[in-house]
Every structure is written in C-alpha cells, then in structure tokens.
Write a structure and sequence with these properties.
Elements (H helix, E strand, L loop, with lengths): L16 E6 L4 E6 L6 E5 L4 E4 L13 E9 L4 E8 L4 E8 L4 E5 L16 E5 L4 E5 L5 E7 L2 E5 L15 H4 L14 E5 L5 E5 L3 E6 L4 E5 L10 E2 L4 E9 L4 E8 L5 E6 L4 E4 L16 E5 L4 E5 L5 E4 L1
Antiparallel strand pairs: 1-2, 2-3, 3-4, 5-6, 6-7, 7-8, 9-10, 10-11, 11-12, 13-14, 14-15, 15-16, 17-21, 18-19, 19-20, 20-21, 22-23, 23-24
Length: 317
C-alpha cells in the first residue's frame, strides 16, 4: 500500500516593496524587502524620500553589525571601523565611543572600503592603548572586550547611534495624510515592476521614483518608455460604484473597484483607457447606490460610459 500523499502548500513570493502606515507619526511609509524592515517616507517640501526616524523602525543594534577591519582617520584622530550592516545591507563606518561603550556611525569620505583589508582572524581592532578589543562575534555581530584588572570583560551589546538623513522640515507639516480619500487601506504609493528590470514607485499618479538596490536610495526618474502606463486600466478591470463631477478639474470622475488591487479608486476616461486620479475635491461615499447603468456621457454625447451585464465598465462610441 502506497503511503498517503499530502499536497504541498505553495507560498507566494514576498513582494519586493511593501507599504504601511506609521501610527506614531500618522504618515504613509514604504519599505523594501532587503532582509530588514526599514521604512522611508516621502517629504513633499523637498521632493525626496528620507529614512523614517521613528520607534516603529527596526532598531539597529551591535548584533546587526559584522566588523571587517579598522583604519585610523587623521581627520577624526580616531579609528574608524568598517562594518557590514545586516539591516541596511550596506558597508558602513563606525567609531567606538569610550563613554557609552557603544558604536556610533560616522562618514569619512576620505576613507574608501577595501575588501582586501578585511581581517582574517577574529580580532578586528585594538583601541585605547590596548584596553579595548573589537572582535567578530562567534555567531556574528561585533564583540567588545575591555581589560579590567588584568582580565578581559565583555562589554554588553547595545543599540547603535546611526546617521540617517534628516528631513529638511518637520514631518508633521510636510507629509501626506495617512489614507487616500478612496479607501481606508489604500496608500498613496503605487508600486510597479518594470519588465526591463526597473522598479518604480509612483506618487499621486504623476511622479516616478526608481529604487537603487545597491545603495538603498530612491531617485527621481521618468516612466520606462517601453512599458504601458501602469495607471491606465482597461474596462474589464474596473467594477463601477457611481460617478460624480469634479468642478475643480472640470471632469467626470468614476468611483470603481479595481480587480487588480481590489481597492476603490477614482478614474477618468481617456483615449487609452481609464486613468486613476487623486482629486481631493471628490470623496468616495460607500453609501451611494448606483441609480443607473449609465455612469456618464462625454464628448458632447459621442462617448457613453456604462456598467455592462458582467458588472464591469464598458464604453460605447
């Protein structure tokens, strides 16, 4: 008799980007799956992404730092330790603070990392006239030893002091509201994977940023010319709720649920399809019931947008 066969559960791969909401500072944040949970937020005043400084961030400790080697900096008059930060996935520079007994991140642009200088043994640096020794921990991380009465005593690992780029203004005055007006769970970021190995983050349906994986930074870019506009959806991908009119933009706006994201958004009709917009003067009301299958009549009666028998949008010209 053959043994019973059990189905093997297939797990979907993690998305490259994740979006979330910081409830401490009430802003939208975006994260990258790099084996960590560090988030960035977008600052409208500077038009840049910044690392999100908040207690909701994953705290970096000395257990996350693997030391490679140390070199003396004439400018700082101190030893600078090159470490591999497992959280940020970067090679970073740190110094040992004798007062706190911990590590502090620094930037010495005159010192360039050289992998050939990586320590071959456990000992990475000897500091303060031989009274402090930095080693590679047995299970990773950094190990700090202090000489006391002729014996070596291990200094407890603590959180490190990092240098993350600070925003130009207060986050409270420069960030976007927590949620979009169309859904309680919809972030204002739109993330798209380009077939040409480019990953875009779109803000408010217009501004594109490309993520640079090697250094963990975002930079402003233009949409890939070989890719279709990710904000344009076809008729069959939208299930209408109702339509309204935006006086500010002089345009008919259709509230519809996307079959791609399962979220209700705002859409306008274009020659290419239905484009998602973020008009603040029209707000979705889930209590409104569609009174007619005809949603709107455009272009002096030559275009009719309606709900078909399948429940999705259709356009007659």
């Amino acid at each position: 008799m053959l043994p019973a066969a059990y189905p093997v559960r297939a797990y979907a791969p993690l998305p490259f980007f994740i979006t979330n909401v910081c409830f401490y500072k009430r802003i939208n944040v975006i994260g990258v799956h790099r084996g960590n949970s560090c988030y960035a937020f977008f600052e409208y005043s500077s038009g840049k992404f910044h690392w999100h400084e908040c207690k909701c961030q994953l705290q970096i400790t000395e257990s996350n730092l693997t030391p490679h080697y140390a070199v003396y900096s004439e400018r700082r008059k101190d030893h600078v330790i090159f470490v591999d930060n497992l959280v940020t996935d970067k090679i970073e520079q740190y110094i040992f603070n004798g007062t706190t007994g911990g590590l502090e991140q620094v930037v010495c642009s005159e010192l360039v990392y050289d992998r050939n200088l990586r320590a071959q043994g456990l000992t990475v640096a000897t500091l303060q006239n031989g009274n402090i020794v930095l080693e590679v921990g047995r299970y990773g991380g950094i190990r700090k030893l202090s000489q006391s009465h002729g014996q070596w005593v291990e200094i407890p690992r603590i959180a490190v002091k990092t240098l993350r780029d600070a925003p130009q203004q207060s986050q409270a005055t420069t960030t976007y509201p927590i949620h979009s007006t169309t859904s309680n769970t919809s972030p204002y970021f739109k993330i798209d994977n380009c077939p040409n190995a480019r990953i875009h983050v779109t803000l408010d349906n217009s501004v594109f940023y490309t993520y640079h994986y090697s250094n963990g930074d975002f930079f402003r870019s233009v949409p890939c010319p070989n890719c279709p506009d990710p904000n344009i959806l076809m008729d069959s991908q939208l299930v209408p709720r109702y339509s309204t009119f935006s006086k500010r933009h002089n345009s008919h706006v259709i509230f519809a649920r996307s079959t791609v994201t399962s979220l209700v958004g705002k859409y306008i009709h274009t020659n290419q399809g239905f484009k998602e917009v973020f008009y603040s003067d029209v707000v979705y009301d889930p209590s409104v019931i569609l009174q007619s299958n005809t949603l709107c009549v455009l272009e002096e009666g030559t275009v009719v947008v309606y709900q078909n028998r399948n429940g999705s949008l259709s356009v007659d010209r």
